[in-house]
Amino acid sequence: MVKNKKKTKLALILLVSLAMLLLPSFAAAAEGVFIATEYPGITVRAGESLTFPLDVHNTGSQNQIVALKVTRAPSGWETSLEGGGKKINEIFLKAGTYEDADLRVQVPQDAAEQVYTITVAAFSGDRELAVLNLHVDVSKARAGEDELTAQYSELKGSGSTTFNFKLSLKNNSAEEQTYSLGAELPSGWQITFKPSYEDQEVASVTVKEGETKNLDVTITPASSVEAGEYKIPVAATSAAGSVTEELTVIISGTYKLNFSGQGGILSTDVVAGSEKKITMEVSNTGSAPITNINFTATTPQDWTVTFDEKTIDRLEPGETKQVTATITASSNAIAGDYMVTMRANGKETGKMIEFRVTVKTSTLWGIIAIVIILAVCYGVYWVFRKYGRR
Q1: 335 near 361, Cβ under 8 Å?
Q2: Could you tell me the fold of the domain covering 257-364?
Q3: What is the reported pLDDT for 365?
Q4: Could you read off the pLDDT of 289-325 as tens digits, one per residue?
Q5: What is the pLDDT averaged over residues 183-211?
Q6: % of the chain at pLDDT higher than 90
């Protein structure tokens, strides 16, 4: 009996001791508070500021108010805990939920290159509930070089083409940056920058840390551009440095067509009901061939215009050819000025001109009028001669 009592007493003492040991663990588990962040280690340069987004979780079954503190930070570093845009020191956690907070850190300009530890802890009274260690690697290198990349860095077209590039600007630093935008352009060229899906042209953009801004870049060549390949460096410059992307524009040639009367004349005259042949000149003043040039005209009612050569298959740069246009005026046209629209349209480009045609009265009617006047005068003379003396 004595031995059994001793054994029972010993068993009770062991159970009580085990319960005492496990009780704090059960309490901590019941409280269920922990702190997390997506990137607990960040690389920055001396003098930069950075933000650690924090998630404070309550996996317990009761609402809690916990105190947040930075319990460890390098000497001379500025830290602050913020929530809702204000500095905080406590946070209310509903059971089974979490709340957001931000740890702001300012790295001194003279910080040595090494890895530093910052500790954030959650407390209930004097009791520590959770701890999160954060590591800041101060280095001359950035957390990653900023990036400026083009979806397509090489575009091809004629000299009259407007070239539209799409660029992506990524801020790989630990703080928001404002970038000035610019490019090295050939003389007479133009460039514009617009944030994607916006109409406003900009000279600079602001990009938050870790984010990417998409840009629409439009390049317009000079009107006198020659065929060839042109390299255009585009740069985005911030206080932290500059990133560039080289764009390539390939000009296949310019398409320019000149169309007019011989010697640049754009007027003539014609007698109503008759035709007039006009020598027209079509010239390729661009730097690339123009093909399949057709000639058409729009005339006043009952007029016609025909061309002795309806199509020119190919016109080389600097080449000029002549075609004859036959203008036939309506027989009912009265004296005055009329406009005839003529077009020379090639596959690549075209030209439209307004040709002024002055209609004159037929000389036959003038002769008939003179004959009638003479006849009338002779008749009057004959009457006076025959009956004048009676």
Answers
A1: yes
A2: Immunoglobulin-like (2.60.40)
A3: 56
A4: 899 999 999 999 999 999 999 899 999 999 999 999 9
A5: 94
A6: 66
Task: Provide the phi-psi class of 174: left if phi over 0, else alpha when psi is between -120 and 50, else beta.
Answer: alpha
Q: Is the pLDDT of residue 19 over 90?
A: no
The boundaries of every CATH 2.60.40.10 domain in the chain are 28-138, 147-251, 257-364
- What are 375's two structure tokens? 């006849």
Encoded tokens for 97: 């939920």
Query: CATH assignment of 28-138, given 3.30.70.380, 3.30.450.40, 3.40.50.2300, 2.60.40.10?
Result: 2.60.40.10
3-state secondary structure of 316: coil
Per-residue model confidence as pLDDT tens digits over 244-273: 999 999 998 888 899 999 989 999 999 999
Query: Who's near 253: CB < 8 A, 6+ residues apart?
Result: 158, 159, 227, 286, 287, 288, 289, 317
Tens-digit pLDDT profile for residues 35-80: 999 999 998 878 888 899 999 999 989 999 999 999 999 999 999 9
Q: How far is CA 144 from CA 44, 141, 207, 354, in A?
A: 9, 7, 15, 62
Give the pLDDT score at 169: 96
Strand 228-238 and strand 241-251: the pairing is antiparallel
Q: Which residues contact 367 (CB under 8 A, 6 or more apart)?
A: none
The set of residues, in sequence order, having a beta carbon less than 8 Å from that of 81 and lying 6+ positions away, is 54, 68, 69, 70, 87, 88, 89, 101, 102, 103, 104, 120
Can you identify the CATH homologous superfamily of domain 147-251? Immunoglobulins (2.60.40.10)
Residue 364 has pLDDT above 90, yes or no: no
Per-residue CA distances from 149 to 59, 152, 165, 205, 244 (Å): 44, 9, 10, 15, 8
CB 33 within 8 A of CB 64: yes
pTM attached to this predicted model: 0.47
Please report, as a single letter, which amino acid is at residue 363: T
Tokens 């246009």, residue located:
325
How far are the Cα atoms of 87, 204, 214, 221 from residue 165, in angstroms, in the given order? 43, 17, 11, 14
